[in-house]
Amino acid sequence: MKEARSAALPARQAAERPRADSAAPGRTGVLGMILKGYPRISESFISTEILLLESLGVPIQIFSLRQPRESFTHRSVQKIKAPVTYMPEYVLPHFRTLMTSNLQLWRRLGARYARCLAGAIARAAERKKTATLRHFLQAGHLSRLRLLDGTVTHLHAHFCHTPTSVALFASELTGLPFSFTAHAKDIYTSEPEQLRRKIHRARFVVTCTRYNADYLRRIAGRPVPIHTIYHGIDLDFFDFGTDPPPAPPYRLLSVGRMVPKKGYDDLLAALRILADEGLDFTLDHIGSGDEKEKIEALCRRLGLDHRVRFRGTLPHEQVIGYYRRSHAFVLACKVARDGDRDGIPNVLVEAMAVGLPVISTRVSAIPELVEDGVTGTLVDPGNPGRMARAIRKVLTAADGTAAQVRAARRKVEADFDNRRCVQRLYELFRQALAQP
Asked: What are the boundaries of the region Disordered (predicted)?
């Protein structure tokens, strides 16, 4: 299992990374990026994207719909130059602010504002959701505050629920074009009719997996510009090489939020099976989430509390050490009852990049990254027995996993180098910012 971190891979040596055009796209305008929250530890792919776009010359303003809720950030956030404007998150605590800015906008836009407001009220009544009016008021506040001076010429939202709702309303109010990136939960828990409307109104749509793109095209019902662009990771930071301690005990690692779609109940059940079979192992879990107390209580009930260590949320600089000191990475993803599911979890890409064998499930787009028996191991979701057998096989394989982890690294280099991925996004924004 031990790999030298300096080991050079042929695919990496041969790869040439793209460079920005000499002419930056920002000469014709600024990209306004609407985010649900900024910064967020679980959305490092967004901060990395912003940083790389800035390095390519894209001027950006960030509009966050809520304040940060964590006490630390990833290193990429500290390098970002884009100014951040925080929007009022809720109506009642910020009623006067929202009403004042929207009334000012109404006076300025006149009939246009009235038509947009009437449309928002009609949609809120149809959907029986007051959140629609909150999104409209946030869009009005943003438009009055930042979008009327001609600086921002294109809006882009991350996630197709709340941020794209605000972007759509802001577009209706100001006439600015918008686009959005759809990810995972936001796609599969959205009402199809609302999602269809957003797709049809957007100048273009980006999503992070082919699985998502196929679904969005079916929802759209007509030809629309939907681009599949993987998030990618920093291959220099996640360089190849692991050095776990001698086994047994085997060290397992899982990184993910404690939410139903991550399948931690299934994983703990699989670990109980392995413990009953006498396998000597530990599991480090990194992350937090809404089901933290529930999962930790389940761990105690299963008698695994001396084997499973919950590390909480950690920055990348600490997480990478766990990747390097583990024997295998496991993520038991599944489709939650409300339809929520993963796309391609970035943590799987990170684990494969450093050379850690991965075990996951055939859910959503995970097979786009992990080819069973070639770049990792896949089992059907919701089956602790099969998950347990897969973990045991990977940990105790007589022939090791050297060939598999090298194939996994080559896969990541070919498809998930974030600089190459962002280059495609850059071209979309370059064209959008250059258009009137």
From this structure: 1-24
pLDDT tens digits, one per residue of 44-58: 899 999 999 999 999
241 and 324 Cβ atoms separated by less than 8 Å: yes
- The second-level CATH assignment, the architecture, of 250-415 is 3-Layer(aba) Sandwich (3.40)
Q: What pLDDT is stored for residue 398 in this prediction? A: 67
* DSSP symbol at 376: B
What is the CATH code of the structural domain delimited by 10-232+417-434? Answer: 3.40.50.2000
CA 363 to chain centre: 16
Contact 377, 359 (CB under 8 A): yes
* Dihedral angle of Cα 34, 35, 38, 41, to the nearest 10 degrees: -150
Dihedral angle, C-alpha 334, 339, 340, 343, nearest 10 ° = 70
Sign of the alpha-carbon dihedral angle for 308, 1, 355, 362: negative
Would you state the structure tokens that stand for residue 82, as one six-digit string?
A: 């884009």
pLDDT exceeds 60 at position 289 = yes
97-130 tens-digit pLDDT:
999 999 999 999 999 999 999 999 999 999 999 9
pLDDT of residue 44: 87
**Hey, what amino acid is at 408?**
A
Pick from 83, 223, 91, 112: nearest CA to 171: 112
Q: Where are the domains of the chain?
A: 10-232+417-434, 250-415
Our CA angle for 149, 155, 159, nearest 5°, is: 145
